[in-house]
Automatic annotation (TrEMBL):
The keyword Transferase applies. Residues 6-273 form the Nucleotidyl transferase domain. The keyword Transferase applies. This is Nucleotide-diphospho-sugar transferase. Keywords: Transferase. It holds the Pfam family NTP_transferase. It comes from Glomus cerebriforme. GO terms for molecular function: transferase activity.
Length: 282
């Protein structure tokens, strides 16, 4: 099967925008209103340009494979970025939300986008638009592993990295068996409740036959009388539902680490890191 790639860019970056407003130096005031995926980073015009470079170097045809879902306030900015990088503007989807208060949430954005992506005989890679990996990133290796998993069976592939004890309660934590199959997903557990220190960033190779589960998860969530936007705003909630209910096989491949651009300080740190480093794709 071929591969389609969906980058999630419909968040509103409320923490970063708040940090920028509170920054008394005004050094970063030019970033006000800029979506996190389009933040200039490491000498590139945008964070997601680093992803684009890695995909191109791995012989991915970006004109037919890369799609982005965003919101109304950011739509024209993504269109401008796409035009500058030879991405067809029809590959940029506006989810029509206008604020953090009426956002769709990441899972619903994925469902919204896959109805527009020609996915016949294609698997799907989901990439968080505010996430990057460290310098050991090797797209070809990960894609090869995903295809190997599916040479005799059907399965999805996620990336994992080692987290510190102090961060376990902040993240989704995976428990793996000896074959690196994910056997459970723990949502922000206490460090004492699991020996696993395996975090999972938003970089998921999803088998085509698993995609129907996104709509099923969304419908089940909305039918829950206690449902809130948070239940569909984190992609990890979907993974937890699939894995813990044994609806589809997920396997894991370790990476050195990841950078998550959440607030101003993490952006400053990421910019410094990528000024002196590049993705490794060979």
């Amino acid at each position: 099967m071929s591969l389609k790639i969906l980058i999630l860019g419909a968040g509103y970056g409320t923490r970063l925008q708040r940090d920028l407003l509170n920054d008394t130096t005004n050094k970063y005031s030019h970033l006000l209103g800029v979506p996190k995926a389009l933040l200039p980073l490491g000498g590139k015009d945008a964070l997601i340009t680093l992803w684009l470079d890695a995909l191109i170097e791995s012989n991915i045809d970006i004109t037919t494979s890369v799609y982005i879902v965003t919101n109304s306030p950011s739509y024209l900015s993504f269109i401008s970025w796409a035009e500058a990088h030879n991405i067809p503007t029809k590959n940029i989807f506006n989810d029509n939300s206008t604020s953090n208060e009426n956002r769709l949430g990441a899972v619903e954005d994925i469902v919204f986008a896959i109805k527009k992506i020609p996915l016949q005989n294609s698997n799907l890679l989901i990439i968080g638009g505010d996430t990057l990996f460290l310098k050991d990133f090797n797209f070809k290796k990960l894609y090869k592993k995903f295809n190997l998993i599916n040479s005799n069976d059907e399965g999805c592939l996620v990336t994992t990295y080692k987290v510190n004890d102090d961060d376990v309660h902040k993240l989704g934590i995976l428990e793996l068996n000896e074959e690196n199959q994910v056997i459970s997903f723990l949502e922000k557990p206490s460090p004492q409740s699991t020996i696993s220190r395996t975090g999972c960033p938003c970089f998921y190779f999803l088998h085509n036959n698993s995609l129907r589960l996104l709509q099923e998860f969304l419908e089940e969530s909305k039918n829950n009388p206690n449902h809130t936007i948070e239940d569909r705003d984190a992609t990890g909630k979907f993974l937890a539902w699939v894995i813990n209910n044994k609806k589809f096989k997920f396997f894991a491949e370790n990476v050195q680490g990841r950078i998550d651009v959440g607030g101003l300080q993490s952006y400053i740190d990421a910019n410094k890191y990528f000024d002196n480093s590049t993705f490794l794709t060979l």
